[in-house]
Specification:
2-enoyl-CoA Hydratase, Chain A, domain 1; alpha/beta; 11 helices; about 50% helix; six-stranded mixed β-sheet
Length: about 280
């Protein structure tokens, strides 16, 4: 097959425009900063966002001009969960849409690990949902006032979206079980002690430090960067292959037979949920 017939890599100009309402992307000297947002504020998570994540990681990973990726959020929250998205009970969703959600939920984190084949730095700028994406990066730094928690069990849903998987692999099975059942907050300093994050910094120092680290990393030969990332990400690849599909399937089955509904149950614990989300 001639080179002209082969599909080429995606270009930053193309995919940065495609995802601009979700991810603001800037690149300098091979370092790609990806900042999640909604209209310039903290990202408001919804189902189109879930769909876009896996596609974005694939596009970013196929661009050979990306050498290091910095992933961060906007404002004081990593992401903001919106219970309104659960107003339609999952058991009432169309069968095909349930399957699509399963696949998209897997791609949200699997494509971050399997498609982005370069060193990654997660900059968790505050408390929020789906913080596991930041901890799946090779290096993770967070703001001093960040709290890590999982509200699934409190909301009557089995925890299968990847947060418990991250906790199991970073903190151990006993700590992960306690966090899952109680929804306890893990503050930034404890997260550092447990190995969930690599450094804890004041909010204004996060991105400068991330760029400092990225500029240090990018000095190594290209082969060294890529192969080192491959070594460092392999435990996550093994964990995802072994357990993520299993955990997510359990969560989605639980939701599919839930007659009360996630939204109704979340409203019962609204004060606890809002307290966690405003902790930053």
């Amino acid at each position: 097959m001639s080179e002209q017939c082969m599909a080429g890599p995606t270009k930053l100009e193309e995919y940065s425009e495609k995802y601009k309402d979700l991810l603001l992307m800037t690149r300098r000297n091979g370092i790609l900063e990806v900042r999640m947002h909604t209209q310039g504020e903290s990202l408001q998570f919804d189902w189109p966002v879930l769909t876009a994540y896996g596609n974005a990681w694939s596009d970013i990973g196929r661009d050979p001009e990306n050498e290091v990726m910095i992933l961060t959020g906007t404002g004081d929250h990593w992401q903001v969960a919106n219970p309104e998205i659960w107003k339609t009970k999952f058991m009432d969703w169309r069968k095909n849409r349930k399957l699509e959600m399963y696949q998209e939920s897997l791609r949200m984190i699997e494509n971050l690990i399997f498609c982005v084949d370069i060193p990654t730095i997660g900059v968790i700028n505050g408390t929020g949902s789906h913080w596991q994406m930041g901890t799946l990066c090779d290096i993770t730094i967070c703001a001093e006032d960040t709290n890590f928690f999982d509200a699934h069990y409190l909301g009557g849903v089995s925890p299968g979206d990847g947060i418990v998987l991250a906790l199991q692999n970073l903190t151990g099975i006993k700590r992960a079980a306690f966090c899952a059942y109680t929804g306890m907050n893990i503050n930034a300093q404890v997260a550092l002690e447990l190995g969930i994050v690599s450094e804890v910094l004041p909010h204004e120092m996060l991105l400068p430090r991330a760029w400092e680290l990225a500029e240090m990393i990018v000095q190594a030969p290209r082969s060294t960067r890529h192969l080192t990332h491959s070594i460092l990400s392999r435990p996550w690849k093994k964990a995802l292959v072994s357990n993520q599909g299993f955990q997510l399937a359990h969560q989605m089955y639980d939701m599919a037979i839930d007659e009360e509904g996630t939204y109704e149950r979340l409203m019962k614990i609204r004060e606890r949920f809002q307290k966690n989300n405003s902790a930053s």
